[in-house]
Structure formats: structure tokens, C-alpha cells
Design a protein that fits this description.
two-stranded antiparallel ribbon; globular
Length: 373
């Protein structure tokens, strides 16, 4: 396994109903004794993160299960087994039911319906049920003890500035989690200390950049869980085009953040090689000392898991809250971890200086091999 002193970080993207895949990933990590010390989440990733950080180890999977069974209790019928075409139609129907009636314990339609051209609520759904659910399932004193670090991202409606709320920097409550998941125009902004906040996914759908920026000293073993693949086939229909647009929009920042950090580490390594060639009097100068501080390196291993769409999923996949699909997503996340943890390079080799990325779920990844560094 990776060095035990490495800080284990779970990075959770936004993705609505696809978030049950993250729950499956976490369940498997607990089974192989790789529970995270730090969770950074956006949107549904913030909700899953609060359920984990706000419960003792023995209750975390139970609380995640309670949440996902609750929010999918509106559509509990078994999914049809008559091919991808029929299943796709069934999923579209389940998504339509969610749009019409909401998701229990999460959100419900505002009544009377909101008219977009009139002043009033800035969302079509009421998220008060989510507040009640978080208050019931999360121990906020435990969460704010900082035993597990939690960072959740949101964007200020008026300034457009992005911010991470962090339990190592201040007390978090249900409103911070709800703000991170307040995706317009479906959900209204959430008020925190006089300001209004929307879903952090409007600016960045993955908190990887925050983790890499904040922690430059400790070695990191990061489990990055993405819910939207960057690669996909050429769409053949308008519906497929809408799905592809969503995938590209919410996956591109992950790729950008990973590449930027790897380039930065390459520059740091080049600086240290250059310093070794300097004469002693220059090596001891104040300028070199300052640059060495900036170029300080830690060891970062990123084990990236990307949810792979099923053929029957469409553009409604992030708001299709059926029990059957939730269970399939959960099992996929669990399986992706368990099939890669045994004898995988990211788990057995010592952490390397700089950044190494393993795509654990790519078509050519085998069983977690194939670093990109």
C-alpha cells in the first residue's frame, strides 16, 4: 500500500443522481481500509461528503444508504430487462417523474409553480426537505470537530466569486452544503451571512485544484471520483448531443487541473536540478532560498475513477432518481475500487516525488495500471 503517512483525500464531483456512484466508491474504500482524512466536494459531492464527515466510521455507509434510499423512494419499480432502447425510455420516464414530483428528502416543486418572467423564488424547487434530511443524518458537532476535513465549493451569486467553505477554517452547517448544491434554475440560491450562493459547479465541478493549492507540504493520495467522462462517441441524435455537451462541460476542468499541476511539478523539478548546478555562493543566496520555498515539492498520487455511462443512459442521467438506477451506480463505484485495489501500482508502489495520475476506469487501464506523469 501507499505510505501510511500520506494524507488520503476523496475528491467528489457534482453530478446529481450519479452521486450514488461516489457512495459505492466510499463503501469499497472503507472495506480496504483506505478511509479518507479529507473530503473535498461540489454539489452532490458536498452532500455525500457531509454524510461521511458528519458520522463516526461505523455509521458512514449506513447514513449514505439511508440518504440514497430516501431520495430514490419516489420511483422504486424494477427496471425493465428488454434491451437498451426500452431501458432508455424507462429512465426518461423516471426522470420525468422526478421533475414532476421531486425527490423525497431532497427537493420538491414549488407550488404554485414559479413563472420565470415574474419576480419571486429564484428556483423551480424547494430544497427545505434537504435541510431537514441533513439535520437528521449529520452530526454537525462531529463534522465540525475536524476529525475528517471537509471542503465544499460554492459561487457568490452577485460577485461571481468562487469560495470553499472548510471545517478547518470555520463552522459548517446545512446551509453550506445546500449552497454547494444549489444549481440554478432548478434550485434557489442559499443565504449565508448576508450573501447568496449557488452551486460551485457553475465555476468548477471538481475540487481537485483546491486540494492541490491548499496542501503543498504533506504527501497526498487522492481518490478523484468523476461522474462525467471527457471522452465519448460522436452523437447521432439531439438527445445524445445534449448528453455529450453535459459531459464535456462538467469534465473539462478535471483534465485541466490535473495537467496544470503536473506541468507545475515539472517546473519545480527543473528548478531543483538547476540549483544543483549552481556554485555554492549562488546556491546559498536569498533569491534561491525564496524560490526553493515556492518550488517545494510533495508527493502526489491521483487515483482517478470516472463513471462510465451505460448505453441506456441519456441527458437526464443526473436527475433520474430511480431506486434501480441508484443501486446500479452504487455497485459500479464499489466494483471499480475493488477490482483495482489488489496489486495496483497506485497502491503498492511508494509515492513518487511530483505528481502521478492513474486512470483506474479507462478502457486501457487494466487493473489500475498505467500512470500518467
Amino acid at each position: 500500500m501507499a505510505k501510511p503517512e500520506a494524507t488520503r483525500v476523496l475528491v467528489l464531483q457534482g453530478g446529481g443522481a450519479l452521486g450514488s456512484y461516489q457512495a459505492g466508491v466510499f463503501e469499497a474504500l472503507t472495506e480496504v481500509h483506505l478511509c479518507p482524512h479529507w473530503i473535498a466536494g461540489i454539489s452532490i459531492g458536498a452532500i455525500n461528503g457531509a454524510l461521511i464527515a458528519g458520522n463516526p466510521e461505523g455509521l458512514r455507509v449506513k447514513r449514505l444508504t439511508e440518504f440514497w434510499e430516501l431520495v430514490t423512494s419516489g420511483v422504486t419499480a424494477a427496471a425493465p430487462m428488454f434491451g437498451d432502447g426500452v431501458r432508455r425510455q424507462w429512465n426518461q420516464m423516471a426522470a420525468a417523474m422526478t421533475m414532476a414530483q421531486g425527490a423525497p428528502g431532497f427537493f420538491k416543486p414549488i407550488w404554485p409553480p414559479v413563472l420565470p418572467w415574474l419576480k419571486g423564488p429564484l428556483g423551480y424547487y424547494d430544497t427545505a426537505p434537504l435541510k431537514a434530511t441533513l439535520e437528521r443524518l449529520v452530526d454537525w458537532d462531529l463534522l465540525n470537530s475536524g476529525a475528517v476535513r471537509l471542503s465544499v465549493g460554492a459561487v457568490n451569486v452577485e460577485t461571481g466569486n468562487f469560495k470553499y467553505f472548510d471545517n478547518h477554517e470555520g463552522r459548517l452547517g446545512p446551509e453550506h452544503i445546500m449552497a454547494s448544491g444549489a444549481l440554478p434554475p432548478g434550485f434557489p440560491p442559499v443565504k449565508i451571512d448576508g450573501d447568496y450562493w449557488w452551486d460551485g459547479g457553475l465555476v468548477s465541478n471538481t475540487p481537485l485544484d483546491h486540494v492541490l493549492e491548499v496542501e503543498a507540504d504533506s504527501d497526498l493520495l487522492i481518490f478523484q471520483v468523476d461522474l462525467f467522462p471527457s471522452r465519448g462517441p460522436l452523437p447521432q441524435t439531439i438527445s445524445e448531443a445534449e448528453e455529450r455537451v453535459k459531459d464535456i462541460r462538467f469534465s473539462s476542468r478535471t483534465r485541466q487541473n490535473t495537467d496544470a499541476n503536473m506541468r507545475l511539478n515539472q517546473a519545480r523539478m527543473a528548478f531543483h536540478r538547476l540549483v544543483e548546478q549552481l556554485p555554492p555562493e549562488l546556491r546559498a543566496s536569498e533569491d534561491v532560498r525564496l524560490l526553493a520555498e515556492v518550488a517545494r515539492e510533495n508527493r502526489v498520487t491521483i487515483a482517478q475513477m470516472i463513471y462510465r455511462d451505460k448505453a441506456w443512459e441519456g441527458e437526464a442521467k443526473d436527475y433520474e432518481f430511480s431506486r434501480a438506477t441508484m443501486a446500479e451506480h452504487w455497485l459500479a463505484g464499489r466494483d471499480d475500487v475493488l477490482r483495482t485495489v489488489q496489486n495496483a501500482a497506485w497502491a503498492t508502489q511508494p509515492l513518487q516525488l511530483g505528481t502521478v495520475v492513474y486512470d483506474l476506469t479507462g478502457p486501457d487501464s487494466g487493473h489500475g495500471e498505467g500512470p500518467k506523469s
